[in-house]
Amino acid sequence: MKQNILVIGQGGREHAIAWKISKSPKVQKVFVCPGNAGTALEKDIENIDINISDINSLINFVKTNNVILTIVGPEVPLVEGIVNKFFEHNLKIFGPTKEHSLLEGSKVFSKEFMINYDIPTAEYQMFSNQDQAKAYVANKKHPIVIKADGLAAGKGVIVSSSVEESISAIDKLLNPDYSEFIVIEEFLSGQELSAIYICNYKGCSFEIGLPWTKDYKSRDEYNSGPNTGGMGAVSHPLSYEHKNEVYKLYLDIEKILVKTINGINDYNKKTNVKYLGFLYIGLMVDSTNKVKVLEYNCRMGDPETQNLMLSLENQNFDFLEMIFNDPTIKIQDLNIENFNHNNRGYCCTIVLAAKGYPEEYKKGFYIDTNNVEESKTVKLFHAGTVLDDNRICTTGGRILTINVYAENQKEAVNLAYKNIKKIKIFEDKDMKIENNNLVFFREDIGN
Ligand code: AMP
Ligand code: GLY
């Protein structure tokens, strides 16, 4: 019997997950709570209007709508314990418990965790006192990285290149309104890599590694400007290198994965629950191919997910089966799998954002995407949008992504840029006053 799935969240990541899952032959309908204009426009997806912090109403919805699985997109409900509540009602939900989500919920916790479980990461110090933090940075070689302890939607990390900048970062991040603790750590250079795992119902050592991707974190070209949630993503360039190099990297990352899963299960052994859900390991690979962990997320990345879902669709993988880990699929790591089967296309994702993001930006203007011809290889995933009388109206900083899958990098990148330029922006609901200055995108994705 076909069944229903609920996806929690409203961003591009959730649009992509819901879209990919709606293609599974086992699925009747995907509900998204609350969703966006993109999910509202999909034919097998329905938005539902429940406040995601109202967990009792969500539970009630799941029980009365034949929902066999709930998938949690963003980190906030995970850190707040949505999974614990669903478990109390014996409902199937895909995500880690509140206790496991500390890996993302606290930088202080995750740094201590990495030291305790021998996981390679940047050297660091933790501070709760501004004067001590300022005295520490005064003698440190720059650049240096300053991170707020709690969740900050990608905006709690400042890479500082001078003592003056570090002092103002400490003022901004270490105060009662922002964060009680900060972490100050060594700046790592190299190639960033997002390694995302499906830690599924089969338990430990059955995690499935999704293809590596590269995220573009800074707002402006060539790593300049402030950090954002992510301005684009591509299939990871390292996966194109020599097979032995990729295999060595795979083994090093696998070691980190195993230590992380065993460590977090060991730390939470009192709760008797194992890590379940997505695990995103943000890595830096240096010029000698050594890997260190930059951060953990207990969810998929945004915009990496948009990139991955289009790749999986074009490589004929069923994402829902991966979550349930159907015994007929024996995949462990798609980087290795794709290598062996020469199954490697390239996917390019570019974020269209409101001018000013990640700081102040305008909302409530209108988007016309009709000139973008979507297909199996060209797909728009919405983020900060709602439908307003059937028109797409912006509600957020990251508005949507254009995603293109092609045989090679050049083709994917060219087509993605060609398509994003076809999107029209209007100040007014009648869509008469065109104004492309309301938005921007990075020009260097995939280069
Ligand atoms: P985080 O939330 O800890 O991943 O930090 C967000 C982004 O800041 C990362 O994706 C990197 O681009 C950058 N970053 C964080 N930590 C470091 C570090 N130690 N060295 C260099 N860049 C970093
Ligand atoms: N794109 C980075 C993140 O989702 O944390």
What does this structure look like?
This protein has helices at 12-22, 37-41, 55-64, 75-80, 82-88, 102-105, 107-116, 130-138, 163-173, 243-267, 304-314, 319-324, 334-341, 409-420, and strands at 3-9, 27-34, 45-47, 67-72, 93-94, 124-127, 144-148, 157-160, 182-186, 191-199, 208-209, 213-215, 218-220, 224-227, 232-235, 277-285, 291-297, 346-354, 366-368, 378-382, 385-388, 391-394, 398-406, 424-426, 439-440. By secondary structure, the chain is α+β, with helices and mostly antiparallel strands. It has four domains: 3-95, Rossmann fold (3-Layer(aba) Sandwich); 123-186, ATP-grasp fold, A domain (Dna Ligase, domain 1, 2-Layer Sandwich), CATH 3.30.1490; 191-340, D-amino Acid Aminotransferase, Chain A, domain 1 (2-Layer Sandwich), CATH 3.30.470; 346-440, Glycinamide Ribonucleotide Synthetase, Chain A, domain 4 (Alpha-Beta Complex). A hairpin with an 8-residue loop joins strand 7 (144-148) and strand 8 (157-160). Helix 1 (12-22) packs parallel to helix 11 (304-314). The termini are far apart. The mean pLDDT is 93. The site of adenosine monophosphate has 15 residues, from strand 7, strand 8, strand 9 and strand 17.
> Looking at CATH, which topology of the largest domain would you report?
D-amino Acid Aminotransferase, Chain A, domain 1
Highest CATH level, the class of the largest domain: Alpha Beta
Question: How many helices in DSSP terms?
Answer: 14
The parts where pLDDT drops under 50 for at least 5 residues are: none
The rounded distance between the terminal residues' Cα atoms is: 46 Å
| Record field, number of beta strands | 25
Cofactors, ions, other ligands: adenosine monophosphate, glycine
Overall geometry: globular
